[in-house]
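Sample entry as discussed:
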Amino acid sequence: MQTPPDQHDYPSHWEADVVLRDGGTARIRPITTEDADRLVSFYEHVSDESKYYRFFAPYPELSDKDVHRFTHHDFVDRVGLAATVGGEFIATVRYDRIDAHGRPASAPADEAEVAFLVQDAHQGRGVASALLEHIAAVARERDIRRFAAEVLPANTKMIKVFTDAGYRQKRSFEDGVVRLEFAIEPTEASVAVQHAREQRAEARSVQRLLRPGSVAVVGVGRAPGGAGRALLENLVAAGFTGRLHAVNKAFPADLTALDGVPAHRSVAEIGAPVDLAVVAVPAEQVLQVVDECGAHGVQGLVVVAAGYADLGEEGRARQRALVRRVRSYGMRLIGPNAFGIINTSEATRLNASLAPDMPRPGRVGLFAQSGAIGIALLSRLHRRGGGVTGAPGVTGVSTFVSAGNRADVSGNDVLQYWYDDPDTDVALMYLESIGNPRKFARLARRTAATKPLVVVQGARHRGISPLGHAVPATRLPHATVADLLRQAGVVRVDTITELVDAGLLLASQPLPAGPRVAILGNSESLGLLTYDACLSEGLRPLGPLDLGTAAAPEEFRRALGRALADRECDAVIVTAIPRVGEGGGSDEELAGALRAAVAAHPAKPVAVAHVELGRLAQALAVASGTGPRPAEPPAAAPRPEAPDAPAGIEPSAAGIPAYPATERAVRALGQAVRYAQWRREAADPGKVPELDGTDRAGAAELIAGLLDAHPDDDPRGFAVPEDRARALLARYGIAVHATLPAAGPDQAVAAARLLGYPVALKATAPHLRHRADLGSVRLDLADEEQLRRGYAELVESLGTPAELRPVVQAMAPRGVDTVIRTVIDPIVGAVLSFGLAGAASELLGDTAHRLIPVTDRDARSVIRAIRTAPVLFGWRGAAPVDTAALEELLLRVSLLVDEHPEVVGITLEPVVVAEHGLSVLDATVRLARPPARDDLGPRTLPAY
C-alpha cells in the first residue's frame, strides 16, 4: 500500500478481526487514500438521519474535499479506521488531535476529537463499541490521553456508546450539543466492560454454530461413502430439528432430493437462509465454497478437509488465506481438518460430525483439538461396556467441538460459550496448543468459579507441536504454564483416562468440603491400598473399615450411611470385590443399597473402586447419569439439595461413579478436593495493596533515560548497569546490599574498611555468579588477614582477577537464601517466580509462579507453594524466617513490573530472609521498549 509523502508508514499492526455483538465478525483497518470509492459507497447507504447526527445538519453527499479529508491521514495527528465486511465499509471512526482551544494540533497536545458513523443496517451490532476500543488504543500509541466528542442530544445510541465504555467522563451541554470528555487510559471499569462484551460476542458466535436453524452439507456424494455423505447421514440419523440441504456441483439438474433431503448444485440455489455450512470438499475447492456461503449470508462453516497447516508452510499459507476469506464475510470457522460438532439438546439434535452415533444427552461439554482423541472421548462416555464405569449413561454430552487446526474458533471461544450455557455443568478439554495462555487463564478462572474445567494437554514438551497448529510459542516451560493454569482453577490431568475419570466424578457428585476420606468395603487389602493412595494424593484418609468378604448389601448400606453422616468425613470411597460365601445379594442389589445410602445423605461425594464387578458398575450408572434434570421433580420424592452439587444435577439422582482401580478413584477424588479448595479460596482473591515508599514518576524518568541511551529495539532488551538497576529498584523501596569492586587484594581491603567487617568476597563473572558450590564465594571474613588469604585462594583456584571480577560485600544476617525472578513472556505476559536458591531447587524444578499483578493472597500463597517451603517456617527446629517481609518484597517487585512494562526482567538472587528482615544481595534488571499493544488493548481475534 503506497504512502503519500505527508503520511507515516501504513500501520499494519492496527488491522484486526473482531467479533461483534451478534456473533458475526468484521475487519477493522486504517483508512487510506485508496478507499475513496468505498467511502462514497458507504455514505450512500447511510440514512439522512444518521448523516444529520454526524454533521449536525443535512448532508446528503460528500464533496470531493470531504472525501480527500476523510481518506488522507498522517496516522499520528489524524487517523481514520473503518470496519469492513466483504471488503466494504460498514462503519468509520476518526480522531483529530486538538489543542486546548479545540484547534488542529500536533504533539505534545494530548487530546483528540473523535467521531463515528455506522450504517443503519449494522447499528445495534456493537460496531461502534469495537471501533472505540481500537481508536483509543491507536490514540494511546500516539501519546493521546483524552478524547472529546460532540453529540446531538437526540443521538442517544452514540451517547450510550461513550457512557457504557467504562471511562470516567466529564459531560457538558452548550449551544444544543452534548460535549463528552474522557481519559482513554484503561480503567478497571473499562477493562471489565471490554471483557464482558468479548464474552457475549464470542459466546454468541459459537452459539450460532452449535444451534443452527438450517444446515447445508457441501460435497455430498450421490453414492454412499465419503465424508460428505457420512456427515449428511449422521445429521439425518440424529434427528436434526432444523432444515437440511445437500449440495454438490456435480448433482444432475433434475435431482431434487437425496435420501429425502433437498439437493442443490450450489449454496446459491438454496432458496432459504442457511446458518451453518459443513464443507466436505477437497482443500483446493474450499475457497470457492466460502465465497458462495459468504454471498448467501451463511453464519459459520465447519471444514473437515485436511491439507492446510498440517502439510507445512505451503498449507499454512493456504490456511491463512482461508481464515481471511471466511472472516471477510463476517463468518466463523471450525477447522480446517475438523472432526465436527455435536449438540445433543432436544431443541437442536445436531450431529455435524464424523461420529456415526449421537452421544447420550448430558451435561458435559467436550472440546478436542484432535479428531482421534475426540472419537476416544465420545466412545469412553457413550459406548456400552466401555469407559470408566463399564456402563452407558453414567455421563452424557451437552456439546462437542473438535476444532482440528483451530485456525479460527478455538478453545477460548468455546469456553466463552460454556460459561453461561445452562446445559453444561462440566467442561472437558483436550488441548495440543494454547494460542493465548493469558486469555485462556483469564477465561478459565471465570469459568471454574461456576463449573469445573478439566484439561489434558498433549504436545507438552518443547519443540513438539502439531503441524496444523500455527500458533505463537511461549518461551516458558510447560511446568510454568501448567502452574499458572492450576492457579486459574483448571483441573489439570495428564492422560485421557484421568480426564474422563475426573470429569465423571465432578459431573455426578457434590464437591467435597475437605480432604477427609472414609474408606469402607469388603476387602481389607483393597482398603489398605486405597488408604495409601489417599496419602499419596495429599488426602487425609480415616482408618479403613473392613466389612468382611461375606458382607451383604444391607451391611454396605448401613456402613455407607454412617460414614456419610459422620461430621469428621468429607467424602467416601467404597471398595468392593466379588462376595465370598453363599447367599447374599447380587451386584444390582449392592448398587441399590449404595444408592439408597447416598439418597439419604446427598451432600458428600461417593466413589466406588471395584475389582471384577462390571455388573455393579452398570447398576450404579443406571440411576440417571448426568442427563438434563426434569423441569419439575416428582412431588412424591423430594430430595434435599447439596450446596456444592454441580448445577442442574440432583446429587441423589446422579449415578455413583465406579472405577476398576483404587488409584483411579482416589486420583479423581483428589482432583475434586483440590478444585473445591480453589473454589473456596477464589471467593476472596485478595487485592493489590498500596505500598509506601514508591516513586512511580521517578522510576519512569529513570527508565526513559536508559531507553533513550539504548535505541536498539531488541524485544529481549538490555541489561541495566548495576548502579542504575539499584537506583531503579530503590524507587520501589527495594534496597540492594552495597557491593564494591575488588580488582586486587588492596582494593578488597579498602572496600572492606568502607563497608565494615565481617565481609564476603565473591566472584561475579557470569560462569561463577551465585556458584558457591564452585568455591566462588568466601564468607565471614572477619579481618584484613582473612580477607587477603581468601582473595589469594580465590585467584589461585579459579583464575585471574580480570577473569573473576571479584567484589566485596558486607555480611548480611544469616537466613534462608531465596530467589525472586520476573519475566515478560510474549504470550503469557508478566510472570513472577519464587524459589529457594541453590542447585537442589533448580534440579527439582521447585519454583512457584504467579501472574503479575500479584495480590496479597498471591504473595502469601506463592512462598508456601514450593515443596521446600517448610525451610522458611522452622523446619527441624530452626527459627522461622520473616515471611511477612518476603511477601512485601514480592509485592514491590510485582508493582514495579506492572506499572512499568519496559521492565522485562528482574532477578534478585540471593535474597537472604532472616528471622527479622531480609537482605537482597544481588540484582539484575533488563529493559526493553514495550510492545505497541499490550494485553489491555482492544478485543481482537488471533491472526495466525
